[in-house]
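Sequence, please.
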């Protein structure tokens, strides 16, 4: 069984929402903070991470934040990635965030968009995430999105 699971994605082909198409993509749940319509603007390379908020997994948050640092520090070494992210983040601000800050949030960490819950995830047998269903097996089951 995996310690972690990464589901690498690319966009815009499968989730980029076109304005006025009458399609609203699935909603990022970030504890109810972000709305689905934010998907109509590309946002560079980004990822998601979670951690457990329970007494049985005290290292979960430390592990997730360490993974986050490893990801963004490695991306900073990849030529052109942070420049591309800066251009995409500026576009995201120009066409979305400056007009609707609640729907178009930018959870940036060292120039990289990392979606993490404001609070940890509670492990539960019927949780939507694999890691939350099996917290003793898998610390995280995140995804990435990269421009195609």
């Amino acid at each position: 069984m995996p310690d972690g699971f990464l589901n690498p994605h690319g966009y815009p082909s499968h989730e980029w929402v076109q304005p006025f198409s009458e399609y609203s993509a699935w909603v990022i749940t970030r504890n109810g903070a972000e709305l689905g319509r934010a998907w109509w603007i590309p946002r560079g390379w980004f990822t998601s991470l979670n951690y457990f908020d329970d007494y049985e997994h005290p290292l979960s948050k430390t592990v997730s934040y360490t993974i986050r640092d490893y990801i963004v520090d490695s991306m900073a070494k990849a030529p052109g990635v942070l420049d591309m992210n800066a251009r995409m983040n500026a576009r995201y601000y120009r066409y979305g965030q400056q007009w609707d800050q609640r729907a178009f949030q930018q959870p940036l960490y060292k120039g990289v968009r990392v979606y993490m819950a404001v609070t940890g995830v509670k492990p539960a047998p019927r949780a939507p995430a694999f890691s939350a269903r099996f917290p003793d097996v898998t610390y995280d089951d995140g995804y990435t999105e990269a421009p195609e």
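Residues 27-31 have pLDDT under 50 and may be disordered.
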